[in-house]
């Protein structure tokens, strides 16, 4: 009984060590089952030390030691596998061997075997995909229990004289087995608790980071300005729970949400020297409120005293900052510091993407302007010549044609990349066709077959006319035979189709002139409605060319 | 009166120009054509003094059309076009003048003066002493359409009682162009009174004892070579 109490005493020393250890940064190597060699070496030294300590703290009984040496090798085996367990056991065993006594060899051997037992349990659990049981104190308890029983067996089998061994085992078996098992189990439960704590903190962090990324994802697509800055600052403030969040450009505050928003007004110039430094030197600035303090230059009553300033970058140029503030009565959490830097990185990426999209759409606009300019001379002068001729015979028709011509050009001028209804598009095409029809007279006939329910369909402006112009300019006007053009619009499930067909059957994909108009129409539809929509061309040589426009039946939403 | 021929694919453009020409009182309209194919037929029977020619026309454009006209039939040429991107090329073709649509009366009066300064008959600057435009495509008449055959595809050209035929690896096509035009405006070589051959498509030349020869083309067609032309053919091939 006295022995049991003494052993329990030594065990409590272990628990203290385990507790201190679990608080130390070195604990990380235990928090994950990692195969990194450095980690293993670290664990080896730690558990070997535990094991040796068990020997030192042992109590002399019958020229032997009652001890808790087993805890080290068994835990090392369970956590790190048979190799680590055996290595720790061997080290602990060797250490014990040099203490001498008639059980020196049997104890040294049994300690190594105990490490191996722990390792076997590790292997079995890993094989059965029950790695969560590795950190289960119950597992540890029974493994140690079994290992100690084996040790007793080894002592009886190896130590001579057998009578001494037997009497020793009778005294130490029970107390040693109980204390080692209980000690190992308690040790493990402490490790497990710490580990869970780590994991839940990491999980909270990831969730928050993902939520912020998701919520801010599309805001920047609207550009980087006061409105979007305010939306983003609100989200970041809600998710991180810091005292205040501010977003600035390089000159002034764009948004300020949270504490201090009474005197930090959006639109006011940047007051803080810390922010200025972050912008000028393109560095992350952190004033933790303890070593370095943030002090508000605007108001003495401002409660904020710690700040993280992260520059927002676009192609390595600083275009603004995101700032997270905490008040005097709250420490600035490390988690929020990493979060803040992460958010700034995500937003910088989004800004880059936005700039790219903007350039892409500018390019499309430039191409559009180009093609509009290309249209003009031939069409204009031939049309005027036609009308001049018609004046001689039919002044009313000439007047009507001039009205169509002016309608056509007015629509052309209004084009600025917005949306039009199918009806407006058809009106534009119609004016164009009236004039072409006058130029070509019998050489051109046009059929229209439009589902009237589609007339309100929203399309990118300048979708149909370029396609019809292609059909006439590159197709029908080069035919000796009569030309036919057809516009057909219909609905099929959730999609609307508009088809423009001619009977010339000349389309050369590689010909830049032919394709440019169609490509721009395609690009703009994809830009506004997504990549599954756009134009497709089919051509049967000398028989027909058909350009099909596919859009959602709901049309485009506002750009 | 100056006999004018109008070629333009737009009917109102022809009518307008006709009206303007008639207003001057100096022109008689000998023909109006809607495309080069019609015009090719018409020019032979009408033999106009001046050709008012649009450039952008279906299938055969104005420049190509000029390359298809017999030299002795070649009238003075005035290009009439909507847009001046072809002006330089037009003058390379030795056009007499170049008018922009819509045509102004005063401008047309100047053209008239230019025409009057030239001798009505005989050598016009359009054709004589000028670089003869080369044909790159030969218009051939199929049952329901006009096919343009690139000269590089042509193996040989044959003239018989039914007319002139262009032969490629794929087939034999009737053309309204004469052998003489084709000989002058392409790299084809005369090898027989009735045959022109494209030397790029000659596979072998078989020489017979009696100085007659035969050409086998790449696609295996056989055409005769007459004694008179054999020498020149040999020279051309540097044999």
Instruction: Please give the number of β-strands of chain A.
Output: 14
Weakly predicted, low-confidence segments of chain A = none
Indicate the multimeric state: heterodimer
Which CATH-level-2 architecture of the largest domain in chain A? Answer: Orthogonal Bundle
Q: Under the CATH scheme, which class of the largest domain in chain B?
A: Alpha Beta
Would you identify the regions of chain B where 5 or more consecutive residues have pLDDT less than 50? 122-129
Largest interface: A-B, 23 and 22 residues
Within CATH, the superfamily of the largest domain in chain B carries the name: Response regulator
Radius of gyration of chain B: 20 Å
- How would a textbook summarize the main sheet of chain A? 5 strands, antiparallel
What is the CATH level 1 assignment of the largest domain in chain A? Mainly Alpha
Give, in order, the helices and strands of chain A: HHHEEHHHHHHEEHEEEHHEHEEHEEHEE
N-to-C CA distance of chain A: 85 Å
- How is the CATH topology of the largest domain in chain A named? Arp2/3 complex 21 kDa subunit ARPC3
Category from helices, strands and their pairing of chain A: alpha+beta
What is the global morphology of chain A? elongated
Kindly state the percentage of residues in helix of chain A: 55-70%
| Strand line-up in the sheet with most strands of chain A | 4-3-7-6-5
Helix content range of chain B:
25-40%
Explain this structure:
The complex is a heterodimer of chains A (559) and B (239). Chain A has 559 residues and is α+β, with helices and mostly antiparallel strands. Chain A contains 15 helices and 14 strands. In chain A, strands 4-3-7-6-5 form a five-stranded antiparallel sheet, sandwiched between helices. A five-stranded mixed sheet of chain A has the order 9-11-12-14-13. Chain A has a two-stranded antiparallel ribbon with strand order 1-2. With 239 residues, chain B is α/β, with parallel strands linked by helices. In chain B, the strands form three sheets. Chain B has a seven-stranded antiparallel sheet. In chain B, a hairpin with a 3-residue loop joins strand 9 and strand 10 (172-175). The longest helix of chain B has 14 residues, at 11-24. In chain B, 39% of the residues are buried. Classes of the chains: A alpha+beta (559), B alpha/beta (239).
